[in-house]
Every structure is written in structure tokens, then in C-alpha cells.
């Protein structure tokens, strides 16, 4: 039995024939299984002499089946390798890849530009409390400026009884930075902000970058130089001209609105040049000012020792100006064709 079984296994031509043999010999109804069952009826002496022989037969057949299976698999692989070819000159299938969104790209660029000026990046929570978003920024409960922010409030108060909201600007990061790290400070804080407002130029979520410098002897000149240096680098033009106008924010004193000069180039407004020149104009770009002494005090620093400036600028707006995009809402539609159109494809 052993020799015929081994010979037949050796002759099996493919995996199916081999499987049939496995069933024939070792399956539940198989011939070797039947031999095993005869052991039960034998006398103890007979069983002692027969059992090792049957076991050995079973092992030999199982080993032969495994060896033959390896040989058949190897032969099948050989055959496939011999017939299959790969044409490396065929065009690759089109696989669309992602790209960096203009907003993320602008935030990355800002982080790089400001890193060169010694600023690090700070962050704060988007779910903020009333104190950081308003009170510590010199907007007490009854301050009229609160009404201008169209705030999304949460219905509940937190465990310490504070009213929670979606931050309406990145300015609370000013407070968090001063409280956490003291002075001096040089940070920018990019991130999402929320206001209940929606039209072609407003989306309920948008992006700002806050800037904050706290040190000794800081004055408006430092603010103007910093903004000029940043905007020249960002718009990659040396002829960026700024105009500072008196304004009002509760958390800066004095407050300045910053306009940037533009010029008409073939019907398009291109940033650069003195806004007062013919065919030129001014565009409002950002809010800023010297950090209000009260705010420095609220954040736990001595305003007699420390001064500083702060600014806040819309990131989406910066991206629109830099890349000539005209509809803010398209930023948040996720339409690949829009990204392609403005060159944001990999
Ligand atoms: N937080 C202000 C806004 O959202 C901008 C600003 C920031 C103004 C810092 C002054 C200083 O409109």
C-alpha cells in the first residue's frame, strides 16, 4: 500500500488531483483512516506491533502530499512568470491626488514668514469661554462691542459657571499666551473663528491669524515695520505701502486699521504702490493696535513694565488677494475643479 500510494502522489499532475488523493488516503472515509480504526479491534499485543507501522504510513503519506503540493505550486508559479509580461511603456492609470488647500497654504506661509522674524506659533481652543473671548479683552458683560460679534453661544455653562461659545476671533489666544508664558512674547496664532453670518463675503466659519508682541519699549513703529515686512514677504512685492488709520477695538489703545495700497492693472486691482497716486486706491486689510494696558493687567502682567502690539488678519481674505479668488464660499465647497482652476493641484 505504501509504495502505490507514494507513487500515485508523485504522479498527481495538479492541485485538484492531489486533493482527491488526500481525501482517498487521509479523509474521514480514507483507506489509512480505515486502517487506524482496525486498531480498536486488535489484541493489545497486536496493537503494539501494528500501531507504529500504521502511524508511520500515515506520516509518510502526509509528508509526500505536502512535498508534492510545494512542487505543484512552484511549477505553477514558474509557468505564470514565463507567460505573464509587464509592459512598462503603458501609460499609468490616472490616480487623483490631494493637494494643500489655499487656506492651509497661506497659514503655512505666514508661519514661515513670522518664524524669520522670531515669532512662534501659538494655539487656543475653538470652544472658548466668555472670559477669554470677551471679558479679558476689555469687553465686559455689557460692552456694546459684544453685540457686533454675532456669537454662537452654547446653551450651558461649564463646571466653573463660565458661559461657553465658539471663539469669534483669535484674540483670546493673546490672553492665553500671556497667562501661560508671561513676557516677553512674540507669537502668531492662526486658526478657525466663528460668527453667525453668511453671504458672499462672510461664512460662519473663517480663519484669522493673530499676532502679539509683548516686550519693553514696544511702540507703533514696531507694529508698522512688522506688518510692512510681513506683507512684502507674503505678497512678494517690495512696493507694498501701508496706511494706518485711527480706529477702535476695546483691547487695543490706540487702535489702528491698516489699509494697503493697490493699483489698477488692466482693470484688476493689484496690491502695491501708494494708494493716493492716480489710478491707485486703499484697501482695508486688518485691525491692530497697541495692546490695551487693561488687557495686559487682566492677563496678569504689569502694564507699567510691559507694552506690546497686536493685530488680527483674515486668512481667507489674504488667500483671495494673493491668488485672485473672488468668492469666499468656494473656499469651503471642496470642489476640486475650483482648486485646479487656481493652480492648487499636485
Ligand atoms: N480681533 C479683531 C477682529 O476680529 C482684530 C484685531 C486683533 C484688532 C488684534 C486689533 C488687534 O476684528
TrEMBL record:
Its EC number is 6.1.1.20. Residues 104-346 form the Aminoacyl-transfer RNA synthetases class-II family profile domain. The keyword DNA damage does not apply. GO terms for cellular component: cytoplasm. It is found in: Cytoplasm. InterPro entries: aa-tRNA-synth_II, aa-tRNA-synth_II/BPL/LPL, Phe-tRNA-synth_IIc_asu, Phe-tRNA_ligase_II_N, Phe_tRNA_ligase_alpha1_bac, Phenylalanyl-tRNA_Synthase, tRNA-bd_arm. Pfam families: Phe_tRNA-synt_N, tRNA-synt_2d. GO terms for biological process: phenylalanyl-tRNA aminoacylation. Its cofactor is Mg(2+). GO terms for molecular function: ATP binding; magnesium ion binding; phenylalanine-tRNA ligase activity; tRNA binding. Keywords: Aminoacyl-tRNA synthetase, ATP-binding, Cytoplasm, Ligase, Magnesium, Metal-binding, Nucleotide-binding, Protein biosynthesis. Binds 2 magnesium ions per tetramer. It catalyses: tRNA(Phe) + L-phenylalanine + ATP = L-phenylalanyl-tRNA(Phe) + AMP + diphosphate + H(+). Its main location: cytoplasm. The keyword Cell membrane does not apply. Tetramer of two alpha and two beta subunits. Belongs to the class-II aminoacyl-tRNA synthetase family. Phe-tRNA synthetase alpha subunit type 1 subfamily. PANTHER family: PHENYLALANINE--TRNA LIGASE, MITOCHONDRIAL, PHENYLALANYL-TRNA SYNTHETASE. This is Phenylalanine--tRNA ligase alpha subunit. The gene is pheS.
Amino acid at each position: 500500500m505504501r509504495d502505490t500510494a507514494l507513487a500515485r502522489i508523485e504522479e498527481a499532475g495538479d492541485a485538484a488531483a492531489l486533493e482527491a488523493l488526500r481525501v482517498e488516503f487521509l479523509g474521514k472515509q480514507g483507506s489509512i483512516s480505515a486502517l487506524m480504526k482496525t486498531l480498536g479491534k486488535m489484541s493489545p499485543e497486536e496493537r503494539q506491533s501494528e500501531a507504529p507501522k500504521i502511524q508511520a504510513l500515515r506520516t509518510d503519506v502526509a509528508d509526500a502530499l505536502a512535498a508534492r503540493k510545494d512542487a505543484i505550486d512552484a511549477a505553477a508559479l514558474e509557468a505564470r512568470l514565463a507567460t505573464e509580461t509587464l509592459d512598462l511603456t503603458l501609460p499609468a492609470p490616472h490616480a487623483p491626488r490631494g493637494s494643500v488647500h489655499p487656506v492651509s497654504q497661506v497659514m503655512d506661509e505666514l508661519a514661515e514668514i513670522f518664524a524669520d522674524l522670531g515669532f512662534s506659533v501659538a494655539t487656543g481652543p475653538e470652544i472658548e469661554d466668555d472670559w477669554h473671548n470677551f471679558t479679558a479683552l476689555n469687553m465686559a458683560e455689557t460692552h456694546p462691542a459684544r453685540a457686533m460679534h454675532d456669537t454662537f453661544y452654547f446653551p450651558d455653562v461649564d463646571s466653573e459657571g463660565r458661559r461657553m461659545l465658539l471663539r469669534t476671533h483669535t484674540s483670546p489666544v493673546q490672553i492665553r499666551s500671556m497667562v501661560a508664558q508671561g513676557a516677553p512674547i512674540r507669537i502668531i496664532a492662526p486658526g478657525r473663528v466663528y460668527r453667525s453670518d453668511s453671504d458672499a463675503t462672510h461664512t460662519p466659519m473663517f480663519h484669522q491669524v493673530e499676532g502679539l508682541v509683548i516686550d519693553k519699549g514696544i511702540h507703533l513703529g514696531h507694529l508698522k515695520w512688522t506688518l510692512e515686512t510681513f506683507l512684502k514677504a507674503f505678497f512678494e512685492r517690495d512696493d507694498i505701502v501701508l496706511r494706518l488709520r485711527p480706529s477702535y477695538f476695546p483691547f487695543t489703545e490706540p487702535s489702528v486699521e491698516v489699509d494697503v495700497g493697490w493699483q489698477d492693472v488692466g482693470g484688476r486691482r493689484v496690491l502695491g504702490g501708494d494708494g493716493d497716486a492716480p489710478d491707485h486706491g486703499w484697501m482695508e486689510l486688518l485691525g491692530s493696535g497697541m495692546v490695551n494696558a487693561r488687557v495686559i493687567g487682566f492677563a496678569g502682567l504689569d502694564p507699567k513694565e510691559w507694552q506690546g502690539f497686536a493685530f488680527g488678519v483674515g486668512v481667507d481674505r489674504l488667500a483671495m488677494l494673493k491668488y485672485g479668488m473672488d468668492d469666499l464660499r468656494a473656499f469651503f465647497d471642496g470642489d476640486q475643479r475650483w482648486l485646479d482652476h487656481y493652480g492648487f493641484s499636485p
